[in-house]
Amino acid sequence: MTEQDAWKAMLRDYWGKFRVVKGHHSVFQDHLHELDCCVPVMVHGDEGRGKLRRAVSVTSLQPALVPDGHAGHSFNSRFLHSIMPGELYTGDFTMSILQEALVEELRNLYTEGFEVPGRHFKQMFC
């Protein structure tokens, strides 16, 4: 079994289990015949303290599936979307605008997908 076959099998298994609990999800209408090319992703947002204990917000994406159940360090599994110091988003609409941009990017990944260079996947979707 090739690496690509293993990924596709893992994705088919995931979506089969997901369908049991959330069978009405739009992925089952929009991508029914290409579920093995649909990568489930999670958005991770966290507000913490940075330098001088000032607020900082970090938003990243990560796949819901990783081979062998772990990807090691989070640098290997999370894709940074944004980092913003608290003084730039406290009390205004900057955070809402940033989150709306993320939603739009995710919609595009869901509908249009993306190509994986050097691989034989037709098109991947999130």
Large-scale geometry = globular
Q: Which secondary-structure class do the elements indicate?
A: alpha+beta
Cα-based radius of gyration, to the nearest Å:
17 Å
According to DSSP, the number of beta strands is: 3
- Termini separation comes to 24 Å
Provide the β-strand percentage band: 15-25%
**Helical percentage:** 25-40%
Query: Runs with pLDDT <50, length 5+?
Result: none
Number of helices: 4
Element string (H = helix, E = strand):
HHEEEHH
Structure in words:
- The chain has 126 residues and is an alpha+beta fold.
- It has one domain (3-111).
- It is 37% helix and 20% strand.
- The chain is built from four helices and three strands; from the N terminus they run ααβββαα.
- The protein has a three-stranded antiparallel beta sheet with strand order 1-2-3.
- It is globular, with a radius of gyration of 17 Å.
- The two termini are 24 Å apart.
